[in-house]
């Protein structure tokens, strides 16, 4: 019964059913456009990249782009959705798995950084676009709020298990998680000598030093 209550408190909806052949084809084209756009944004920047640049790189007709995205800005919103999916996956694994919450959070820290399209150039381009484009910034803020709520659920689960400190609100832990990750990515993108794995690992360790309970076997009482 206790396990059922825990799942009900923290669980996300079940995974959707398998896609049909037509849906798989559509998803493949969408992914090809997305990957091409990330490549172009890294090489030319968001502003200088045109829809035609993206469709040429993806080897599809220009009109095909608008079957999947209304604009370049919406494409970046799709980028945010892929990151939300990673946080949802981490939450499911934290609920269903038998590993410590620390392991799930650590893996999420790396999953958000080690993407196939990740380069310093792309990171700088994405950050500059978020700062300078109001529509993209609105998308980004909405996704940050959504991911923050999901991350807070992971920390809530950790508090229930005595694996995360209880004297800090889970919303504050989620905010510190985002700040640590964003700061690490920014510094890595600006420093040619920095190695991504080392930068992310160091940032996570500093974050977890502040998130871990003072005593591993902390009592169940305490405020969240």
Question: Can you give a write-up of this model?
Answer:
The protein has helices at residues 2-10, 21-44, 51-58, 62-68, 72-96, 101-111, 120-132, 134-160, 170-190, 196-211. The model is unreliable at 1-7 and 218-224 (pLDDT under 50). Helices cover 72% and strands 0% of the residues. The chain is an all-alpha fold and 224 residues long. The protein is globular.
Looking at this protein, list some descriptive labels.
mainly alpha, globular, single chain, disordered N terminus, 224 residues, Tetracycline Repressor, domain 2, 2 domains, Arc Repressor Mutant, subunit A, 0% strand
| CATH class annotation of the largest domain | Mainly Alpha
Q: How many β-strand stretches?
A: 0
Number of helices: 10
Rg over CA atoms: 19 Å
Low-confidence segments:
1-7, 218-224
Q: Please state the second-level CATH architecture of the largest domain.
A: Orthogonal Bundle
Briefly say what this structure is.
Helices cover 72% and strands 0% of the residues.
Write the layout of secondary structure elements.
Layout lengths: L1 H9 L10 H24 L6 H8 L3 H7 L3 H25 L4 H11 L8 H13 L1 H27 L9 H21 L5 H16 L13
